[in-house]
Amino acid sequence: MAGCCPAEAALALAGPEAAGRPARAGALEQAAREIRPGVALLQLMAPGMHCGGCVATLERALSRAPGVRAARANLTAKRLSIEYAPAETTAAAVADVAEAAGFAVHPALDADSAARAEAAETRDLLARMGVAGFAAMNVMLLSVSIWSGADAATRDLMHWISALIALPVVVYSGRPFFVSALKGLRAGRLNMDAPISLAVILAACVSVYETAHGGAEAFFDAAVMLLFLLLVGRYLDRLMRARARSAAAGLMALQPRGAVVRGADGAAWTALEAIRPGDVTVVAPGERVAVDGVVVEGASDLDASWLTGESAPETAAPGAAVRAGAMNLSGPLAVRATAVGERSSLGEVAALMAEAESRKSRIARLADKAAAVYAPVVHLVALGAFLWWIGDGATVREAAFVAIATLIITCPCALGLAAPMAQATAAGALFRRGVMLRDGAALERLALVDRAVFDKTGTLTEGRPAMRAPGAAAGAALPLAAALAGGSRHPLAQALAAAARAAGVVPGRVDEVREVPGYGVEARTGGETVRLGRAAWVGAGEAEAVEAAEASAVWLSRPGAAPVAYLFDDAPRSGAVEAVARLEAAGLRVSILSGDRPGPVAALAARLGVSDWRAQAGPQDKIAALAAMNAEGARTLMVGDGINDAPALAEASVSIAPASAADIGRAAADIVLVGEDLRAVAEAHALARRTRAVILQNFAIAAAYNCVAIPLAVTGHASPLVAAIAMSSSSILVVANALRLAGGGPRTAPGRGARLPQAAEAAA
Fold first, then answer.
1. Which residues are catalytically annotated?
2. Which GO terms describe its molecular function (predicted)?
3. Angle at 672 between CA 764 and CA 609, to 5 degrees
4. Last residue of a domain, one of 83, 108, 133
5. How far apart are CA 181 and CA 50, in angstroms?
6. Could you give the 3-state DSSP secondary structure of residue 173?
7. 438: helix, coil or strand?
């Protein structure tokens, strides 16, 4: 529980009853939220979690609890995500399971509270580190006289003075390690603080014994220096973890604490948690929008680049939708709230990032299992070294110091950090590139894909098609077509509706509007069925007349008249050509699988340099095509509409969906692309491969370290002090290697990929 504030540690030792069970249960129930029928999500902070063994212990205990559907632990954020059935258990009961496993937990805090708690923990850690460092320097200074050949009386005096300095420091600076180890033992497990605590206590006790009996050597300097180096390592680890979380921290800094709400009694500042949908908030120039909503008064320019990636300001006028976190640049606005807090776009993005961090890849799960069994093995190795040295004729003191060095040098910090630090850093780097992980395990699958399949409309193209001027028959039927188009989310239908509005066409009256995914929209008018959609679906007999055209088309069928076509042009999405080229250069086979007609698909494929394409593929055709690829052994990446192509996305090994702000939480994909530039897909693939390589490098570092360090310690060639330096260095090396993934910054074209302000900027 290193780094925990004293009050929290005391509460953890006292047990859950000390917090007041009714109030605690109420707070936990409020922290839970329903994510699907019959299943709630509870997010808890576990400050005492700091190694892979802790992660495995918590996940194992929670997964076995009654009513718990899934449990994931995020080592970087020290957060638990538990899915449970409220009908079978309660949030308080779930928290009790975590505490029974030896971990103090509390509901996940808001950004401000979390920042204050983090600062308090950092101050506490710095204080303990400073005391240990000051004591280590003084004890080592006293040791100079001993090393320089002082007589026995002077040596004994220096030892006693060293004991007076070192022993209180061991108690104070070592407390986080001792408390964590004690809680683990109470829960029946050995965490990584157990060997550290045992090593420090043994070093101090042996030194006291040697001093009391006039021994020639005492190792108070090793005990306090060990604590100092361990605390330095944990402090650097905390700083590096904070850097890995910088994207999420900068994102949450965009969320205002509240807003001015206009009511019957006038306008008053209201905390964010008290704002409800329907409330009218007032946003002054220079302020950030606190809620998702619709502008009801005023006009202004908004900077929403954190989400859209567009550097140019958006115009906000009455009727325009605005998103939480957008900066109001010019005029005052009155915004009626439609979504607040975690339901807003900002909240959904933050939830996506948290969810992605908590889901582990196969490699990370294996590392957690290895770290969980590592601590008992460490104790056995240390005990074996002790007995071996005793059997070889060494004194108890000599054998004890070999065992102490073995306990220290074999600490599994590097192994526990190898995968989660790389994954968290990669998630932050991807977010700065406009790519959000919904599933952290998808990163590993993305690194292994060998085939990329793209949808066309809205994916390879901008999804903002422009309708050509209709012919006479099509123009006469435009009111009916506009009425049907208003009931569809398909880009072509939306473009038709927009063109009709721009032409001043009033939509006709239709009833029973129903969208058929992959085919079109149908409705009833005058007792007859009318359809707008694919040529074959509406029964267009003259489809061949425009089949060769390089434009997309939708057809309208109505009673007593021949079907008519509306033609559209859709430009390729920014970066599409380069994205395809980079994926092919990386060894992937690229294909296009579209529901559009052969003419437009062939034209786009030729423009992008893609030779493998298929047109007029309905939802079932796409599923069948991907299933066939998978059956052939291909590992497929599907890039398509996160809503319309949901079945095909689910069939692929890993899926990416471009999504607007409104669609982020609904896109049925492993990875969501926010922004317009498709080069982010190629960058995500490249970063996934780099992440996998870094994780494997980290495992190699941890393995090489243990192969070299353990023999040195067991054979007596590493003192406890050298062991502490080696152990801390291995952990720092692993974390620093993972942080290489954060370098480079955004690589998409300026103004096109999503970008995230720095936390300092956002706070200002």
1. 455
2. ATP binding; ATP hydrolysis activity; copper ion binding; P-type divalent copper transporter activity
3. 120
4. 108
5. 12
6. helix
7. coil
Question: Using 50, 70 and 90 to split pLDDT, how confident is the model at 170?
Answer: very high
Query: What confidence category does residue 22 fall into, taking pLDDT thresholds of 50, 70 and 90?
Result: low
Question: 152: Cβ–Cβ under 8 A, 6 or more apart, which residues?
Answer: 214
Is residue 661's pLDDT more than 90? no
214 — pLDDT class (breaks 50, 70, 90): confident
Question: Coil, strand or helix: which one is 756?
Answer: coil
- The DSSP-derived string for 440-506 is TTHHHHHHH--EEEE-IIIIIB-S--EEPPP-HHHHHTHHHHHHHHTT--SHHHHHHHHHHHHTTPP
The parent domain of residue 74 ranges over 6-108
757 within domain boundaries: no
Half-sphere exposure (Cβ direction) of 430: Cα atoms closer than 13 Å: 36
- Amino acid type, 627: A
Q: Beta strands 589-593 and 451-454: pairing type?
A: parallel
Q: Going edge to edge, which strands form the sheet with 314-316?
A: 314-316, 300-303, 327-328
Interior/surface letters 149-187, b for 16+ CB within 10 angstroms, e for the rest = eeeeeebbebbeebbebbbebbeebbbbbbbbbbbbeee
Q: Which two tokens stand for residue 118?
A: 């983090």
Among 569, 593, 614, residue at a domain's last position = 569
> Which of 265, 264, 291, 288 lies closest to 277 in space, CA to CA?
291
| Burial (CB count <10 Å: 0-12, 13-18, 19+), residue 243 | middle
Q: What does the angle CA 610 – CA 614 – CA 618 come to, to the nearest 5 degrees?
A: 140
| Beta carbons within 10 angstroms of residue 621's beta carbon | 15
Span 435-454, pLDDT tens digits = 877 766 788 889 999 999 99
d(CA 165, CA 662): 61
**At 584, is the pLDDT very low, low, confident or very high (cuts 50, 70, 90)?**
very high
Contact between residue 438 and residue 755 where contact means Cβ atoms under 8 Å apart: no
Element (H, E) at 201: helix 193-212
Q: Give residue-wise pLDDT tens across range 358-385.
A: 555 566 666 656 666 666 777 788 889 8
Q: Indicate whether 663 and 534 sit together in one domain.
A: no
DSSP labels, 291-303: SEEEEEE--EEEE
Q: Domain for residue 421, yes or no?
A: no
Q: Do both 260 and 334 map to the same domain?
A: yes
Q: How many distinct structural domains can be found in the chain? A: 4
- CA 271 to CA 259: how far, in whole Å? 7
Given a contact cutoff of 8 angstroms between Cβ atoms, the answer to whether 258 and 267 are in contact is no
Per-residue pLDDT, 403: 84
Same domain, 33 and 71: yes
Tokens 């000390």, located at residue: 18
Closest CA to 494 of 503, 504, 507, 484: 484
d(CA 86, CA 83) in angstroms, rounded, equals 9
| Model pLDDT, residue 14 | 36
Q: Give a yes or no: residue 156 inside a domain.
A: no
Cα maximum dimension of the chain: 117
Q: Which of 12-16, 53-57, 64-68, 690-694 has the lowest mean pLDDT?
A: 12-16
130 contacts: CB under 8 Å, gap ≥ 6: none
Band (pLDDT 50/70/90 cuts) for residue 251 is low
Question: Mean pLDDT score of the chain, rounded to an integer?
Answer: 78
**Of 636, 43, 74, which Cα lies nearest the Cα of 356?**
74
Query: Does some domain include residue 603?
Result: yes
Cβ-contact 51, 370 below 8 angstroms: no
How far apart are alpha carbons 480 and 619 in whole angstroms? Answer: 26
User: Would you call 472 exposed, middle or buried from its count of C-beta atoms within 10 A (0-12, 13-18, 19+)?
Assistant: exposed
Question: With the C-alpha atoms ordered 582, 586, 591, 594, is the resulting torsion angle positive or negative?
Answer: negative
CATH number, domain at 330?
2.70.150.10
